[in-house]
Design goal:
The structure holds two protein chains of two kinds.
Chain A: E1 4-5, E2 13-22, E3 25-31, H1 35-41, E4 48-49, E5 56-57, E6 70-73, E7 80-84, E8 94-98, H2 124-128, H3 134-147, E9 162-174, H4 178-189, E10 194-197, E11 213-214, E12 217-218, H5 219-232, E13 236-239, E14 242-248, E15 252-258, E16 273-285, E17 289-291, E18 304-306, H6 307-315, E19 319-320, E20 324-329, H7 333-343, E21 347-353, E22 367-370, E23 372-379, E24 383-390, E25 393-398, E26 401-405, E27 408-410, E28 423-425, E29 430-432, E30 440-442, H8 452-468, E31 482-483, E32 506-508, E33 513-514, H9 515-523, H10 529-536, H11 549-560, H12 564-567, H13 581-585, E34 597-598, H14 602-607, E35 611-615, E36 618-623, H15 632-645, E37 647-651, E38 656-661, H16 665-672, E39 685-691, E40 697-707, E41 710-715, H17 720-734, E42 741-744, E43 749-755, H18 759-764, E44 781-786, E45 791-796, E46 805-811, H19 812-826, E47 831-833, H20 836-846, H21 879-882, E48 893-900, E49 912-915, E50 925-935, E51 940-948, E52 957-962, E53 967-974
Parallel strand pairs in A: 2-8, 9-10, 9-16, 10-13, 16-30, 18-26, 20-21, 20-26, 21-22, 34-36, 37-47
Antiparallel strand pairs in A: 1-19, 2-3, 4-5, 6-7, 6-8, 11-12, 11-31, 14-15, 15-16, 17-27, 23-24, 24-25, 28-29, 32-33, 35-36, 37-43, 38-41, 38-42, 39-40, 40-41, 43-46, 44-45, 45-46, 48-51, 48-53, 49-50, 49-52, 50-51, 52-53
Helix pairs in contact in A: 4-5, 4-8, 6-7, 9-10, 9-11, 15-20
Chain B: E1 4-7, E2 11-14, E3 19-23, H1 34-42, E4 50-56, E5 64-70, E6 76-81, H2 82-85
Antiparallel strand pairs in B: 1-2, 3-4, 4-5, 5-6
The complex binds zinc ion.
The site of zinc ion has 7 residues of chain B, from loops.
Keywords (chain A): Oxidoreductase
Family (chain A): Belongs to the GcvT family.
Protein name (chain A): Sarcosine oxidase subunit alpha family protein
């Protein structure tokens, strides 16, 4: 005997059948079904296997707490594992597959784990898998992973889109049950901006499963009327299928809206899910209460169900749980269920109530057994019988469905996300939300209010009071008399453990934690709630113990002789229910994961065959291969040689460019650079070193004085944003008295380096002014006119390569044309493009440093810039700390060149320097190679290195040690400038 | 961490728009003794309660702010422009 669909009733549309599959078998449900109700309507009780023991499991709940009915939905890129069938709306063509079974759900080999269960008790991870250590990787972990029973994520890309948004409101109402609806209507009618969020498809919460009449309207119709009114109010947003999953600082709530998770054919113009961040002045927590299971033997056999869930399936989905039902209840809610079942023609054999005087108003046909408990349930894949103990006597009763209700736990999760702890109430037999913790007001069952009328009233009053604090005059909405409202009434005493049972009595269904595991945890000294959680894994599954935690606390309390309040809860953290990675990522995936920055000369580079390399967000041209070149080294070497012999053009647009203006601009620069800038003449560029306040070099670049009070600073590509932030800090926080303004102009200019002996001749062809050495000497920097006045740009005579070289800055939009014009006019001179690889070789040959050398541990003197530092200045960033003794220590690593003794030998960047004949130990480490390259000019590998006393050791034979690859290269230290040390080329 | 940070120029904005530098300490005079500089550069309090920090509204008005927040409750108590805090116009 099993569950079946009733011929009438329910909030379903029998005229709208929906086909779906479960484990490949075609089944039919109707519009309005959840996947769970459709499975039950088809008599499908067995829906999954348990995590550890692979026990047959059925549907236990009708909501978000479901621990058993986890399924994989969809296929290929839309595969969604671990979907709770209770939360999944049915749609035509839905494909669901059970999880954690092999080879099939009905016959599962893993169920043999049940036989091994003595070895799988609490703490088994720690006890069983201790030794020997290599077994962990090879044996234990694969075994655990294979046994671990959850769905598998797909490796295919998710084809759908996700969205994110912010929303602001006066009042957020979480949950649209009786309290939530009442609060929202009260606040909405008063004109407050209200957002109501409910995780289910329809607003109404428990009202949808309720048979009571409110003000003459049946509860479900009442819920619909409320929802209709809320939707009609322009100041109210009603979000269904939306789970508020977290409460964050600043009264910001995270919520996920499942926009298209219930639809057969997705609209490509809408997201499947939308992540909301909701800023609320106040919040009504109307999340209701979660019914607790009772912990008796076999309480996990398919056919055993929460009483409230059974009522929902019956009233909302018109699904009867079985032919012969029993109810095991420790409160009066079970009697309402009995009345509803009998009204629908389902036989109730017995109501088992551990209390002496429960269900006083019950007038149905079922036998009521008071002072009695169910000790065991029997059956394999479907419930067959239960053992009822009354006094000293135990009777077996044949039933095919059993409802259970151990009491109600307010859903306090959100209220505890910001550090508040729930408070145990003996009166309510549950943990209540923390009082007065921030801007969150619980209402209705979420704060232990009992009964429909009381919840409606509480929601309306609390909603009115809350919006009154924001200046709204609100009258609590009155809904009229409630007929058929039977308050649950808290059980006289909580019923944690049930003595006399023989079978496994489950506490945490999803992680297969049963009562004896908790007993063992206490016995072995892990009775503290946080320890018991880790020791037993109770509460650590994907449901985070929604059904089990309070029972576990109750059992621990009993075993330790404490009150549940003294045992306390574990910590509540977001998310309330699992949130998809898709929703969290939103649009930030694939090419939208991060922006791409392309230089204004990107097109030019691409047309000339550039191979691009990602540097941060930028795509820089790395080299420009030509036909016949075997590999990138050959291309780079050709580019380097061509710069030295003729001329090359390199895109340097991505260097940071900051304009610094104002009467105090020179003074400002003088304070942010360690070298002097006050007297930089107009029309001149100067190399500048920026230090951190600890004296180490932060960044370098050239700064040019364009006008008396107008400078242009360049920074390295990597530090462009950081340097801007730093300058703004200096200007705003340190020296707001200086009259200076900063503007980043990196994107406004296309900048190209034209380097090589023929660079002047090539440039002169397009530049109107004379740029001969006399008129435009080394470090000249000023505006120039191009193409007979058609365009203006800025020309800087600066060189990274050591050659006669210029940098030409052109308004970004004209950069491409100017670069092409130069290529055309320069062709006869041998002008070729070169990329950052060649640029790097050229600068290493010339001994110029980059952030390879400026590694955060070097001061100017370490790089040979000691004399640049102007200690005569009254103040600059880093001045005070730079003068510390240790930073002038003689054995500091200092910049030096390094070449292999045998030109055929090579070494790599990052390799360490050892004195000749020294053992390869860390103690003997002398420093390391910061940059290296093959130098066409030298004819071998060359390197720059930071070596102890490096500047004093030119000529010394050393060994370059690459410990990773076990390579040793004999080498010689040398001056760091390999090319034109007298700077003749530079000044040509 | 606060989800929203009040900017005196832009209003309440998501924390993702800001970067934090750290404690809002006064920079010592250039000729202050080495101890003062050592404290300024390296030593930080780790208070339980109110804490003043430099926050940069990087993805907003690009002003540096002095934000006072509570390290226990994450409540932002005050937020003012760093220049204004020094008595200068922002
Ligand atoms: Zn701002």
């Amino acid at each position: 005997m099993t569950s079946y669909r009733l011929p009438q009733g329910g909030l379903i549309d029998r005229g709208h059948p929906l086909s779906f599959t479960f484990d490949g078998k075609a089944l039919q449900g109707v519009q309005g079904d959840s996947l769970a109700s459709a499975l039950l309507a088809n008599g499908r009780r067995l829906v999954g296997r348990s995590f550890k023991y692979h026990r047959p499991r059925g549907i236990l709940t009708s909501g978000a707490a479901e621990p058993n009915a986890l399924m994989t939905i969809g296929s290929s890129g839309r595969t969604e594992p671990n979907t709770r069938a209770t939360m999944q709306e049915l749609y035509a063509g839905l494909e669901a597959r059970s999880q954690n079974r092999w080879p099939s759900l009905a016959f599962d080999i893993g169920a043999l784990n049940s036989l091994a269960s003595p070895f799988l008790g609490a703490g088994f991870y720690y006890k069983t898998f201790m030794w020997p250590a290599p077994f962990w990787e090879k044996v234990y972990e694969p075994f655990i992973r294979k046994a671990a029973g959850l769905g598998r994520a797909t490796h295919e890309a998710d084809p759908d889109s996700y969205d994110k948004c912010w929303a602001h409101c006066d009042l957020l109402v979480v949950g649209s049950g009786p309290a939530g609806l009442a609060a929202a209507l009260t606040a909405g009618r008063a004109g407050a901006r209200v957002i109501v969020a409910d995780e289910h498809a329809m607003a109404g919460g428990s009202l949808l499963s309720e048979t009571a009449i409110i003000g003459g309207t049946p509860a479900s119709a009442f819920a619909e009327a409320c929802a209709t009114e809320l939707r009609s109010l322009p100041n109210v947003t009603l979000l269904t299928r939306t789970t508020v999953f977290g409460w964050y600082d600043g009264n910001v709530f995270g919520a996920v809206e499942r926009v298209q998770r219930h639809i057969a054919t997705l609209s490509p113009s809408r997201p499947v899910e939308r992540l909301w961040r909701i800023v609320a002045k106040g919040t009504i927590l109307a999340t209701g209460a979660e019914e607790r299971p009772l912990v008796f033997g076999g309480n996990d056999i398919p056919g055993v169900m929460m009483a409230g869930a059974m009522r929902t399936y019956l009233n909302r989905y018109a699904v009867a749980p079985g032919r012969t039902t029993a109810i095991f209840t420790a409160n009066d809610s079970g009697y309402q269920l009995a009345a509803d079942l009998e009204a629908r023609g389902v036989r109730v054999s017995a109501i088992v109530d551990p209390r002496a005087a429960g269900g006083a108003t019950y007038a149905g046909k079922a036998r009521v057994l008071r002072d009695a408990v169910v000790t065991d349930a029997h059956g394999g894949r479907s419930l067959a019988a239960i053992d009822i103990r009354s006094g000293s006597r135990t009777d077996r009763l044949k039933v095919d469905a059993l409802a259970m209700s151990g009491g109600f736990s307010p859903v306090v999760h959100l209220a505890c996300h910001r550090g508040g702890r729930p408070v145990w109430s003996d009166e309510k037999a549950g943990f209540l939300p923390p009082a007065n913790f921030g801007g969150l007001t619980p209402a209705g069952a979420a704060r232990g209010i009992d009964g429909l009328a009381a919840c409606l009233d509480d929601g309306a009053r609390r909603g009115a009071n809350l919006v009154a604090t924001f200046g709204f005059t609100a009258t609590p909405v009155a809904f009229g008399t409630v007929e058929g409202d039977v308050p649950v009434s808290a059980p006289a005493k909580t019923l944690w453990s049930i003595p006399g049972g023989k079978g496994k009595a489950f506490v945490d269904y999803q992680n297969d934690v049963h009562r004896k595991d908790l007993d063992l945890a206490v016995k072995e000294g892990y009775g503290h709630v946080e320890l018991a959680k880790r020791y037993t894994t109770g509460g650590m599954a994907t449901d985070q113990g929604k059904l089990s935690n309070v029972n576990a606390i109750g059992l621990l309390a009993e075993a330790r002789g404490l009150s549940p309040g003294a045992v306390g809860t574990t910590t509540f953290r977001p998310f309330y229910t699992p949130v998809s990675f898709g929703a969290l990522a939103g649009a930030h995936h694939g090419e939208h994961f991060q922006p791409v920055r392309r230089s204004p000369l990107h097109g030019w580079a691409a047309r000339h065959g550039a191979v691009f390399v990602e540097t941060g967000l930028w795509y820089r041209s790395a080299w420009f291969p030509r036909t016949g070149e075997k590999d990138w080294r050959e291309s780079v070497a050709r580019e380097v040689v061509n710069v030295r012999r003729n001329a090359g053009l390199c895109d340097v647009s991505m260097l940071g460019k900051i304009e610094i203006c104002g009467p105090d601009a020179a003074e400002f620069l003088n304070r942010v650079y360690c070298n002097a800038f006050l007297k930089l003449p107009i029309g001149k560029a100067r190399y500048g070193l920026m230090l951190r306040e600890d004296g180490m070099i932060y960044d370098d670049g050239t700064t040019s004085r364009l006008e008396e009070n107008r400078f242009l600073m360049t920074t390295t590509t990597a530090y462009a944003a950081g340097a801007m932030n730093h300058l703004e800090f200096c200007a705003q926080a340190l020296w707001p008295d200086l009259d200076v303004r900063l503007a980043s102009v990196t994107d406004q200019w296309a900048q190209m380096a034209i380097a090589g002996p023929k660079s002047r001749k090539i440039l002169q062809a397009i530049i109107d002014e004379d740029i001969g050495d006399a008129a435009f000497p080394y470090l000249a920097a000023h505006e120039v006119s191009l193409f007979g006045g058609a365009l203006h740009g800025r020309l800087f005579r600066i060189s990274f390569s050591g050659e006669l070289a210029y940098e030409l800055a052109i308004p970004a939009a004209y950069g491409d044309s100017v670069a092409e014009a130069l290529m055309a006019t320069g062709r006869t001179e041998g002008l070729m493009p070169y990329g950052v690889e060649a640029l790097s070789v050229l600068r290493i040959e010339k001994g110029h440093v980059t952030h390879n050398e400026i590694n955060g541990t070097v001061v100017p003197a370490d790089l040979g810039f000691g004399k640049m530092v102007s200690l005569a200045k009254p103040d600059f960033i880093g001045k005070a700390m730079l003068q510390r003794e240790g930073l002038a220590a003689p054995d500091r690593p200092r910049l030096v060149g390094v070449v292999p003794l045998d030109p055929a030998d090579t070494f790599r960047t990052g390799a360490h320097i050892l004195a000749k004949n020294a053992a390869a130990t860390l103690e003997n480490d002398q420093g390391y190679v910061t940059s290296s390259a093959h130098s066409p000019h030298v004819g071998s590998t060359i390197g720059l290195a930071l070596v102890k006393r490096g500047d004093e050791r030119h000529g010394e034979e050393v060994v370059v040690w690459n410990g990773l690859n076990g390579e040793f290269t004999s080498a010689r230290l040398c001056p760091p400038v390999f090319f034109d040390p007298s700077n003749e080329k530079l000044h040509a | 961490m606060a989800s929203l940070v009040p900017c005196p120029h832009c209003g309440s904005r998501p924390k993702e728009e800001f970067t934090i530098k750290g404690a809002a300490l006064a920079r010592p005079a250039p000729d202050a003794d080495p101890d003062s500089w050592f404290h300024y550069v390296y030593l930080r309090e780790n208070p339980r309660g109110a804490y003043e920090e430099y926050w940069h509204h990087t993805a907003g008005c690009r002003r540096w702010l002095i934000v006072c927040r509570d390290t226990v409750t994450h409540q932002v108590n005050t937020s003012q422009d760093a220049a204004a805090a020094k008595g200068q116009a922002a």
